[in-house]
Design goal:
The protein is α/β, with parallel strands linked by helices. Helix content is 46%, strand content 17%. Helix 2 (23-40) crosses helix 3, helix 5 (76-94) runs parallel beside helix 6 (134-146) and helix 8 packs parallel to helix 9.
């Protein structure tokens, strides 16, 4: 990790730059794949699946037999852990559902808003170097709570499970999917999965909105399909974490948190912000020690090479730097962590204190781990039940209500030069007067 000491604020933008691919080259590559799948459907998906995943598939849909068999392949301990995580996530997300409240803005004028679950949503579950079955909980549970009509799940087939044949889905992904009530699972990954759900193919339905994290190729694909009118959750790319550590931080904890994100992949980034050089030295020593025992240490090493350590003068400067970075995950390993958290305005999810590792949010605390990356936390929120609903507003006026509001609407419409708008109120008002005169 490169170390920056007591830098000027003017240098922050450059220091905090994320590692990215050449966008022009990336968009060209991804755009070509999207176009081919849009034109040739399943045939193109099979071609790219063989090319990128090294798997030949005749059918994409996971069978009911495969789903049932998955449970037997997992230990009871893991299944119980998944069930516990699902319970916590469900508890947290169920509280996000608000009852419909009718507001009478003036006598006879009632307004309200109702959440309607989306008809078809697509979930992308990464499964390349790590089967992220936890993401199914994070997406499937709020989708179910929201009342989505149909949930499609795409996840890469793997050629690594050679003992169980080629092109299978990890059993933990299948078990978790059925646990939350998802049974339309397709063995399709990467850009081709995003394209299939965006445009539809002979076997994979087109959806209204696509959710799920992924690498830069997946993120690029999601951004490009937006131009064709397909909604996405957010630009969610390579995982990242920022840790703020002061003298009260436990170096071993900080190092573990940094490595927990670095192991996601070579394009991940971790940032350590500290207010003293001694803290940094102790964390660096722990990083070296823990990295040697990490099974995914080669990936972590590559991520660390793109990562930064920034030494600041004080807490106020750290807060300013962290708000500029807008981390996907922010861990506050400092003495007054709650007070610092209150001053953070840009972050996907915040972990407060030495005993709040980012891992708990990734799996089981209850919050959602599908979060904005690449600085998008300045404008985007993480996934919630709201992400899976449309909110429709309603209004209902009685005759009295229309009479009460008619003058206001007519005056405003005429002032804007929209006489037709005014007429729609006038004609009703006149009809009510005529009816009254007949009595």
């Amino acid at each position: 990790m490169k170390v920056y000491k007591y830098t000027d604020r003017k240098e922050w933008k450059e220091i905090l730059r994320r590692p990215v691919m050449d966008n022009n080259s990336l968009e060209k590559t991804v755009g070509k794949i999207l176009k081919k799948i849009k034109e040739k459907g399943d045939k193109a998906i099979k071609k790219y699946t063989e090319e990128f995943d090294l798997v030949k598939l005749k059918k994409f849909l996971v069978t009911e037999k495969e789903i049932k068999a998955a449970a037997a392949m997992l230990s009871e301990e893991l299944k119980q852990a998944i069930q516990q995580a699902a319970s916590n996530i469900r508890s947290f997300h169920e509280k996000q559902v608000a009852p419909v409240e009718i507001i009478e803005t003036m006598p006879g004028v009632k307004c309200w808003r109702k959440s309607i679950g989306m008809e078809k949503v697509g979930l992308y579950i990464p499964g390349g170097t790590a089967p992220l079955f936890s993401t199914i909980l994070m997406l499937g549970i709020p989708a179910k709570i929201a009342g989505c009509g149909e949930i499609i799940l795409c996840t890469p087939p793997t050629h690594l499970l050679k003992e169980r044949g080629r092109g299978e889905v990890h059993p933990a992904i299948l078990y978790t999917a059925q646990l939350v009530g998802i049974n339309k699972i397709f063995k399709v990954g990467g850009v081709q999965a995003i394209a299939a759900m965006a445009y539809g193919t002979e076997t994979i339905p087109r959806v209204n909105k696509i959710f799920g994290p992924g690498n830069q190729f997946v993120t690029c694909a999601k951004q490009l399909i937006q131009k064709d009118g397909i909604a996405i959750d957010m630009p969610a790319g390579p995982s990242e974490v920022a840790v703020y550590a002061d003298a009260t931080a436990v170096p071993a904890f900080v190092a573990a948190d940094l490595l927990s994100q670095a192991e996601h992949g070579a394009d991940s980034q971790v940032i350590l912000v500290a207010d003293s050089e001694s803290v940094v030295e102790r964390v660096q020593a722990e990083l070296s020690l823990q990295l040697s025992d990490l099974p995914r240490k080669e990936l972590a090493k590559k991520a660390l090479s793109n990562s930064k350590i920034i030494i600041v003068n004080d807490e106020a400067e750290a807060i300013g730097l962290l708000n500029e970075y807008a981390a996907e995950h922010l861990i506050l390993s400092c003495e007054n962590a709650e007070a610092v958290a209150d001053k953070i305005i840009n972050a996907g999810s915040i972990f407060i204190g030495n005993y709040s590792p980012e891992s708990v949010g990734d799996y089981a605390s209850g919050t959602n781990h599908t979060l904005p990356t690449n600085g998008n936390a300045k404008a985007y929120s993480g996934v919630s039940v709201d992400s899976f609903v449309k909110k429709i507003t309603y209004q209902q006026l009685s005759a009295e209500g229309l009479r009460n509001i008619a003058g206001t609407v007519e005056l405003m419409a005429v002032a804007e030069g929209l006489e037709g708008h005014a007429a729609a109120v006038k004609i009703r008002n006149q009809e009510m007067k005529n009816e009254k005169s007949k009595i």
